[in-house]
Amino acid sequence: xxxxxxxxxxxxxxxxxxxxxxxxxxxxxxxxxxxxxxxxxxxxxxxxxxxxxxxxxxxxxxxxxxxxxxxxxxxxxxxxxxxxxxxxxxxxxxxxxxxxxxx
Length: 103
Known about the structure:
Blueprint: E1 31-36, E2 41-42, E3 49-50, E4 55-68, E5 71-79, E6 86-92, E7 101-102
Antiparallel strand pairs: 1-4, 2-3, 4-5, 5-6, 6-7
Protein name: Coiled-coil domain-containing protein 94
């Protein structure tokens, strides 16, 4: 059990961090996150109601070339639990305000 609690890692004396490959970040990267729906909505395909607070695994991306008063916008892609149609919505990234919604 104690072997799982190790906080330090051994680096051999001949280890060279400069030889490690660089981690490249793509510009249009999508993160997979777990969110709760920010508002009640209805699927256009099957008519299923999705109520506020339902949890989803979503893809998140930053909306490029679009901001609201200098605040970034994020676009989320979720799937309808009944027909698996894709639903997307945009929200502000400012946590101090109630998230304004855009479709």
